[in-house]
Amino acid sequence: MLRNKLVPYTFLFPAFVGLLVFKLYPILDALIQSFYAPTFITDVKQFIGLRNYTELLTDSVFWNSVKVTLLLNIVINPLQIALAFLLAMLLNRKLKGIGVFRGIHIVPISVSVPIACILWAIMLNPEQGLVNTMLVWLGFDPQPFLASKHQALWTIILIATWKGVGYWSIFLLAGLQEISPSLYEAASIDGAGKTQQFRNVTFPMLKRTLTFVAVADTVANFLLFAPMYILTRGGPENSTNVLMNESFNRAFVYSDMGKASAIIIMLLLMLAVIITLQFKFLKAEH
């Protein structure tokens, strides 16, 4: 009897070890390192308490990275979720050739982030890129895109949206297909139109899935780093310097692991607050 009770925990144990080693331990290590000064000459660490945090609070570069991170997420999260939801609604319809379209829409998912960034960098080249070639052909002026401090962040938002919308639409499509057709039939018999069916059937039944997508998408975008590192290195003029990129710079460019760790801890705290608010406002039932 005891053996049967232990079977589920045996299967969960490797996942628990992975969570402990690759998730919880790095966070704990970052928290500890955030209380120490950088060691440029000697390996002896100097405990400085909260100095890394207080110095960051008066650092204009840090606050700029906070602003860029929040702006990125304020735009990209609703954009990705809205487009993913519309795409899922389309994919859920029984249309001719929808099977082929379902296969095509996940192509961006199959392309790795570094390769996708390199391809977009080539296409967005200000002088010889495909996108500017098409703009000139259509009669528009060529655009700097990633080379402009006014366009770089918005360009990365579009690239990340292209990469992520298909992925999140899969979860929403699965949620839509779990809704029983009998609920729509009952609503139709009661005289509910398409709008009323969406408001009273689709949205309530999809609330849990939407909550998961909203939270997971927020986490993914707050930790977004590869596009900035590959395409802009945080530039031009720190216009794409998100907190993850700033932490990388502090750690591996300026060799200040203490401040890099402090940035990560502050990012995680910010993320925890935002996720808590999301759960509160979405009122998901668990």
Task: Characterize the main sheet.
Answer: none
Give the overall shape. Answer: globular
Q: Output the structural class.
A: mainly alpha
| CATH hierarchy: architecture | Orthogonal Bundle
State which percent range the strand residues make up: under 5%
Number of helices: 14
Uncertain runs: none
- Number of DSSP E strands: 0
Membrane topology: Multi-pass membrane protein
Family: Belongs to the binding-protein-dependent transport system permease family.
Main location: membrane
InterPro entries: ABC_transporter_permease, MetI-like, MetI-like_sf
Outline of the structure:
This protein is mainly α and 286 residues long. Helices cover 72% and strands 0% of the residues. It is built from 14 helices and no strands.
Overview of the structural elements:
Keywords: Cell membrane, Membrane, Transmembrane, Transmembrane helix, Transport. It comes from Paenibacillus thalictri. InterPro entries: ABC_transporter_permease, MetI-like, MetI-like_sf. Belongs to the binding-protein-dependent transport system permease family. Its main location: membrane. With 286 residues, the chain is mainly α. The protein has a single domain, classed as MetI-like fold, CATH 1.10.3720.10. Helix content is 72%, strand content 0%. The chain contains 14 helices and no strands. α11 runs antiparallel to α14. The longest helix has 32 residues. It is globular. The relative contact order is 0.13.
